Amino acid sequence: MRLTMHTFLTLDGVLQAPGGPDEDPSGGFTHGGWTFPFGDDEGGAAVVGWFGHASAFLLGRKTYEIFSGHWPRVTDPPGDELQVHGSGELAQTLIEHDLIDEYRLFCYPVHLGSGSRRPRPGKPPAWQQTCFLAASSPPS
């Protein structure tokens, strides 16, 4: 089974709270939901395709709390991957030990200036293998 990492990432390396304004305000983060202006059908289809390969998830505490309300009700047959979504602290540990088989990153053309970043400062950016570029401007 392959271990894959999936995350939404800004140009300045922020991965904190892409899904909603109250998702993760830790550290005074006020940009929650920063991906929404860039959503489109193509990006949505890519994410749905990724989830179709999941047989199980390996999640950090914060991401688990976000996922736990929905995923226990999913009854689709298992896929062929163990997937990490978000889970910045967990992901960094896996990166540092070279345990990730494939990186699937949605890179957004925004610079937030603050927020949780991966890799940690001073660490090599191991996850540059794959980056899907989101829309270059928000839809009108």
Layout of SSEs?
Elements: E1 2-10, H1 41-51, E2 54-57, H2 61-67, E3 81-85, H3 88-96, E4 102-108, E5 131-133
Parallel strand pairs: 1-3, 1-4, 2-3, 4-5
Q: Summarize model confidence as the mean pLDDT.
A: 80
**Weakly predicted, low-confidence segments:** 135-140
Number of domains: 1
Annotation field: number of helices: 3
Helix fraction bin: 10-25%
**Beta-strand residue percentage:** 15-25%
User: Using DSSP, what is the number of strands?
Assistant: 5
Oligomer: single chain
Strands side by side in the biggest sheet: 2-3-1-4-5
What's the alpha carbon Rg, rounded to whole Å?
15 Å
Order of helices and strands: EHEHEHEE
- In whole angstroms, the N-to-C terminal distance is 41 Å
Structural class of the secondary elements? alpha/beta
The outline comes out as globular
Largest sheet: 5 strands, parallel
Could you please describe the fold and organization of this structure?
- This protein is α/β, with parallel strands linked by helices.
- It has one domain.
- It has 3 helices and 5 strands, in the order βαβαβαββ.
- Strands 2-3-1-4-5 form a 5-stranded parallel beta sheet, with helices on one face.
- The longest helix has 11 residues.
- The radius of gyration is 15 Å and the shape is globular.
